[in-house]
Amino acid sequence: MAAPRPATNKIIQFKLVLLGEAAVGKSSLVLRFVKGEFKDHQESTIGAAFLTQTVCLDDVTVKFEIWDTAGQERYHSLAPMYYRGAQAAVVVYDIQCPDTFSRAQAWVKELRQQANQDIVIALAGNKADLAAKREIETEEAEVYAKENNLLFMETSAKTALNVNDLFLQIAKKLPKKDSQSGAASNVNLGESSNQKKPCCGSN
């Protein structure tokens, strides 16, 4: 949880969006960051979910307005409504699933082409607690992140590994201007329907 902020600390809010294939653990990362909790069976997000959390730096408190988007392909067309105007994005993949890493790279390319020019993008290799089953080597992701000027960490929503630090590093990279708008457009979150079976677990 966020530490109490000094009374003199100004608050700057930023819109942050999470993107990635279904079942890579986006919702679990947000739940761990916002509430310090983990659920073994996290329900699939329908459309998107909205949460807020603050990160305290030395001279400012960063308030994240977080949009956790659904990973199913049928919701892809909604994604621009969530990342439009976002100052930061976390693109998540599952270290066990090569397809999710390829999809993460596609999201990065889309953000570079269509999102804010100065958006801060972090790449999160999630489910690091299952490293024995990994199919994406850390070095491969590190090279990709460096080539594309991304923040990179391997995370585990289950054990909390690097989760808070990921958002802290994003907060440090964001410009600390006096005026930042984290307002999001009103969006239709879509209707619930049967979820496709994920390629891996849901943590």
How would you explain this protein's 3D organization?
The structure is a single chain. The protein is an alpha/beta fold and 203 residues long. It has a single domain (10-173), classed as 3-Layer(aba) Sandwich (Rossmann fold), CATH 3.40.50. Helices cover 26% and strands 24% of the residues. It contains five helices and six strands, in the order βαββαβαβαβα. The protein has helices at 26-35, 79-83, 98-114, 138-147, 163-173; strands at residues 10-20, 48-56, 60-69, 88-94, 120-126, 151-154. β4 (88-94), α3 and β5 (120-126) form a beta-alpha-beta unit. Mean pLDDT is 86; it is low at 179-198.
Give me the secondary-structure topology.
Blueprint: E1 10-20, H1 26-35, E2 48-56, E3 60-69, H2 79-83, E4 88-94, H3 98-114, E5 120-126, H4 138-147, E6 151-154, H5 163-173
Parallel strand pairs: 1-3, 1-4, 4-5, 5-6
Antiparallel strand pairs: 2-3
Provide a concise account of the structure shown.
With 203 residues, the protein is an alpha/beta fold.
Helix content: 25-40%
**Under CATH, the topology is which?**
Rossmann fold
Give unreliable regions as ranges: 179-198
Order of helices and strands: EHEEHEHEHEH
Helix and strand content put the structural class at: alpha/beta
What is the end-to-end distance?
Answer: 20 Å
What's the total number of strands? 6
Label the CATH architecture: 3-Layer(aba) Sandwich
What spatial order of strands do you see in the largest sheet? 2-3-1-4-5-6
Described by the principal axes of the CA atoms, the overall outline is globular
Q: Main β-sheet, in a few words? A: 6 strands, mixed
- How many helix segments? 5
User: In CATH, what is the class?
Assistant: Alpha Beta
Family: Belongs to the small GTPase superfamily. Rab family.
Pfam family, one: Ras
Keywords: Nucleotide-binding
Biased composition (Polar residues): 180-203
